[in-house]
Design a protein that fits this description.
With about 110 residues, the protein is mainly β. The protein is about 0% helix and about 35% strand. Strands 1, 2, 3, 4, 5, 6 and 7 form a seven-stranded antiparallel beta sheet that branches. The protein is globular, with a radius of gyration of 13 Å.
Length: about 110
């Protein structure tokens, strides 16, 4: 799979800390296994924010939080940043790190 970006912003060097909580403004249907499905109104934990190349879309990674979609909880994937609105920030510390091919690997 193609890399969506060369760098990303995380809360730590392992991207294991949640940066923020967001609410979905619209539905998003994942085009492939790198992405997650999001339904309007769902809460999303944001783990990283890709730094786009010139002219590329802005994507963040995260996981949905919803008791209605238990099968999706804990699954981390990408979604367009324009699909959500951040509602709570958990850390002000941000680390810029390069992405790797594993960031975009899926089967």
């Amino acid at each position: 799979m193609d890399k969506l970006a060369d760098n990303k912003i995380c809360g730590d060097t392992q991207c294991s800390y949640v940066l923020s909580m967001a609410t979905a403004l619209d539905d998003f249907t994942a085009p492939d296994c790198r992405f997650i499905n999001i339904k309007m109104g769902q809460k999303v934990y944001v783990y990283s924010k890709l730094i786009p190349a010139e002219g590329a879309g802005v994507f963040w990674s995260g996981s949905v939080y919803s008791e209605l979609y238990m099968h999706q909880m804990g699954v981390i994937g990408y979604f367009p940043a324009t699909t959500v609105k951040e509602t709570q920030t958990f850390t002000e510390d941000e680390v810029k790190i390069p992405t790797t091919n594993m960031d975009f690997y899926c089967e």
